Amino acid sequence: MNATNQCAEMELLIQADIDGELRAAEAVSITAHRATCAHCEQTYRQLMDLKQSLRNELERHTASADFRALLQRKIAAETKAATPVKSNPVIKLPNKANTWYKRSISTFGAGAALAAGLAFFIVSPAQEPLLDAVVAEHIRSLQPGHLLDVESNDQHNVKPWFDGRLDFAPPVRNFSAQGFPLAGGRLDYLNGREVAALVYLRGKHSINLFVWPEAAEKSTLSASEFQVRNGYNSYRWHQSGMAMWIVSDLNQSELSDFVKLWDSTKL
User: Which has the closest alpha carbon to 166: 185, 151, 139?
Assistant: First the structure.
């Protein structure tokens, strides 16, 4: 398969990955491909920006029951009439990644993509696209050479490294004495912007802590919130005007201890 055809099929899988439809092993394959393909990485970022934008709009505008019912009928009709999408020979495309996904990607930036994204959020308001992105970036960071841009267990080396690379100063702490040593940090891209990714260790487990400025009043979160996606555990919370989001394969109890350490630290 040549590169053009491979990327065309990968775009379908990227959409499925963003929607949380892939198993962990499949998601790893997608992130590994994105790490070496600028085209697919750009597609991923554009789709994430679109979904976040649509979600923000829907938080301000609630669709009527009649409109929801109409959209559901149209989607059901299109799904019934759709031709099955040929799956990747290695990674099987989930059933939900059907024809209307393909049209939304191939005409990205046009009305069809907007309609497809809008329908997705109205029909599935509980979906967490940002959680999908956070977990995907965690998985991507585990690929060789992607975990750290600056490697140091000294917060006084890591924090200044972000100066001039971000438009905010991320808080950096080292909890070596409590069993969570700092490994370093890197730049990452989430929520439509560049963010700080701080990396901590717990035994053989890596913990990604994503940080970016976000006022607490913009979120429905009043305390830390635990979530699971594709076998990875995560907590998110707000602290001193910063959105804080950790992801790891570490168990919930130990991740909760890590959150408590941050919660007890003045930023």
Answer: 185
DSSP string, the chain: --HHHHHHHHHHHHHHHHTT-S-HHHHHHHHHHHHH-HHHHHHHHHHHHHHHHHHHHHHH-PPPHHHHHHHHHHHHHHHHHPPPPPPPSSSPPPTTS-HHHHHHHHTTTSHHHHHHHHHHHHH-TT--HHHHHHHHHHHHHTSTT-S-SEE-S-HHHHHHHTBTTBSS------BGGGTB-EEEEEEEEETTEEEEEEEEEETTEEEEEEEEE--GGGSS-SS-EEEEETTEEEEEEEETTEEEEEEESS-HHHHHHHHHHHHTS--
219-248 burial: b if 16+ Cβ within 10 Å, else e: eeeeebeeeebbebbbbbbbbeebbbbbbb
95: tokens are 């059933």
Model pLDDT for residues 47-91, shown as the tens digit of each residue: 877 876 776 665 555 566 666 677 777 777 766 655 554 444 444
HSE-CB of 187 using CA atoms within 13 angstroms: 12
pTM: 0.55
Q: How far apart are the C-alpha atoms of 264 and 55, rounded to whole Å?
A: 32
Q: Which residue in 221, 210, 213, 208 sits closest to 242, CA to CA?
A: 213
Sequence-distant (≥ 6) Cβ neighbours of residue 144 within 8 angstroms:
none
Q: Which domains, ranges and CATH numbers included, belong to the chain?
A: 3-123 (no CATH), 129-263 (3.30.200.100)
The pLDDT, as a whole number, for residue 253 is 93
